[in-house]
C-alpha cells in the first residue's frame, strides 16, 4: 500500500490537507460519518473542539478496527454545523488533528451542514482509507 500526497506548486499551499492523494493498495475502507457519540450513543462535548476530537477519535477507532492507521487515510470530509465556528477554531482543530492523526494529511473537504443526524452534534467526519 502506498499513498502519495500531491501538492502542485501552481495551487495555493495546502494547510492541514493535501490537494490530491494517489492511492495504491488492495483494500479500501469506507468510514461512516462519525460524530461525538460515546459508547452509549450520547453526544459528548459542549464545544466544537471537544466534539471534533471525539468525532475524529471515533473515526480513527473504526479505521483501527478495520486494520488501518491514520496515515492510510486517503480522503476525509468534515461536515460542521457552523462553518464560521469551524474557521474560528481552525488552529485548535489542526492541533487536535496532528495529535491524533499526525501530519500525513489526506485529501480533505469541509462542507457546511444545515443539521446533523444528532441535533446536539456540531461536526461529523467521514473518510476513505487504503490498506495493504
Give a brief outline of the structure:
A 4-stranded mixed β-sheet has the order 3-6-4-5. A two-stranded antiparallel sheet has the order 1-2. It has helices at residues 48-65, 83-88, 90-101; strands at 2-6, 20-24, 27-34, 73-80, 107-110, 123-131. The chain is of the alpha+beta class and 132 residues long.
- Average the pLDDT over all residues and give the rounded result: 95
* Number of beta strands: 6
- Order of the strands making up the biggest sheet: 3-6-4-5
Runs in which pLDDT lies below 50 for 5 or more consecutive residues are none
Please indicate the percent range of residues in DSSP E strands (runs of 2 or more). 25-35%
Main sheet attributes: strand count, strand direction, barrel closure: 4 strands, mixed
| CA distance, first residue to last residue | 5 Å
Shape: globular
CA gyration radius, whole angstroms: 14 Å
Helix content: 25-40%
Number of helices: 3
The string of secondary-structure elements, in order, is EEEHEHHEE
Structural class, judged by helices and strands?
alpha+beta
